[in-house]
Amino acid sequence: MKVKKSFFVLFFSNCLVLFCACGCTAQRSPQRDFKNDSYYFMALKQLDCGNQKEAERFFSLCAKKGSAYCARKSAEEYIKIGNIRERIEKTEAFLRRYDDECALLLAVRTFSSAGEYSKVILHTNGADLNECSNALASLRLGALLQKQDSRFYREMESWFLNRPLSSEHYKFFTANELDYSSVIRFRIEVYRRNYVSALEIYNADGNGFPQEPQIFSDLGKTFLYAAPDYYSCARKFDGFADSSSGEAQFYAYFYAGRLYEKAEKYKTLASQRYMSAMEYAKAQDDGAKYDNALWYLLNLALRGSTKKAILLLKTYCSTWYDADYFDDFLNLLPPLLLSEGNWNAFYDIYQALDGYASNEAVAKYAYIYGRLVQEGIAMPSVGEIAGSESDAAFTRALTSGSDFYYRAMAVYRLGLGGAREEEVLCNTIVDPDASVDTEAETLLLGYAAFGFPEKIYPEYMALYSDGVVISTGVSMKLAAFLNECGENKYEYYPQGLRIAARAFTRTTAPVSKEEMKLLFPRDYKTFVEAACTEFNLPQEALYALIRSESFFDAEIVSSAGAIGLSQLMPDTAADIARKLKMPEFDLRDAETNVRFGAFYLEELNSRLDGAWLPAFFAYNAGITRVRRWIKDSRLSFNSKTALPNDILLEILPFDETRGYGRKLVGASAMYSWLYDDKPVSESVKEFMR
């Protein structure tokens, strides 16, 4: 496959190592650029060649002389080389240098694999099994069990009772046949989602269960999914709330609310319990628990009436902790408001949410309100002129975070072009106070320069999860490098895209139009061009579909069974193969998958009279549903003609399909703008007609 050149990759062209057959001799080494850190990457090369002694020497040098991340990585690899005695000695020295939990976990794994259980116990004596990693706790308990230490049962019981159950708990339980208490067996059944079995254990022995937060949490799930009488269970949790305190009391109130809600006739009691749970969480400044209880309070209100839900939303939106957590709830309201004809509620909501909800949510309500005013469906607010009112709403929708649909639609409605269009489309929230970790960047760039693309993405994501800031520029270089590697190994395509997407959500500098191409790459270009030519399909539409369906991951299989780049179900693919006269096919083959996806999208577009947005809907939800939705939408608006497609989108009953349509329209417009210099307004007009 021909490798296309990117200006980002020029960074690596000066330091890319070209290795001989075994990868050990560099024709042009980047050692000069990475100085002492290069010892780490050279050691990895020696390991690949099977030269452990030379690798050991290089790891030792970097551990002593390298910058923080490369030195640490070298020290971790260094202790893995040698016989058991040598590895134990190296591990002891490693622990004297590094005293964090990650170092302890690595060391304990080394001791445990060598059968040095006394050392495992010695080095974990200070570990709090209710706070440390579950992997570390499991290793300590395994060592205590092996040594028949008297502390085992007490510590094991505490670990199983006081923490959310994890895969480590389950592995320990299944690997060790012990006389577990009924409460542990109860929790394991809940973990397995065997709620009926869990309820049987509770009914037999539950009176002796401790009133601990995790027990209440598991019991709440058990009652919700297996109990025959929700009201009685809710009353039981009321009793728990009266007799417990602290975090356990939160769970008692919360699950009392869930159970009263499930009992249907006790919505007032459910609301009161949710608010009691919120009060506890607020007093403890526990944002996750507060938001969880508030979400259920709002959702309960919405099941009663949109009016009550809006009132509560306006009351509490300024109090929530994580704005993004409520995006799914805020997605539920627009179709209901539109079907009720409650047009002007969009203005009230977007004004109330601004500054508290996510930019995506505010942009949604602002854009819909602007369109309703523009169409003469909603009345402008008091004293305002319709045109200026809608323009103000569209202007607010321009700052829509990472959702390009409302941004593109607002650009179209406001008639923006040229430099202003580019400014809006490339706009990101730059954190001026972000402290970039240049030593972490050295590690990542070294993986690229020395030819270890397989290490970049997992390391990047681990650093991202730990809150380590990688500059936007370096992130984009890494994304470009992985994208180039994808030409020869497809798995790197989605990895490069994911890094670019992460970088876009947390930027340290403005993003250029050229860099934006990494967020909307043209991977599998040969296959896409051929399929689009064969079926007379716009390339931007097919790229948008593949990006939205699979993020260019050719191996992905959905939980529903959809396969590959264009996420086709086997039955749909079989029908396509019949029409294309292909008796044998493999959806995991990228070329076949792209071709089938292109055929199917073009067929849907033709059957829907060339209307792209309904075709996108049909690709996701089926053409029969889409035709019914179009018909029903006219009834909702008492209209004899078809609704504008952007308003049709907002009234669809399936949130997934609404989101799907937004993604494909936004991505199609971005592809046309980035690669063909086509104004977004023109693309939107084509795809929304």
UniProtKB/TrEMBL annotation:
Q: Which residues form a coiled coil?
A: none
Species name for this entry?
Treponema porcinum
Q: Which residues form the Transglycosylase SLT domain?
A: 529-633
Pfam families noted in UniProt: SLT
Name of this chain's protein: Soluble lytic murein transglycosylase
Give the domain of life: Bacteria
Arranged from A to Z, the UniProt key words for this protein are: Signal
Endpoints of the signal sequence: 1-20
Q: Which family does it belong to?
A: Belongs to the transglycosylase Slt family.
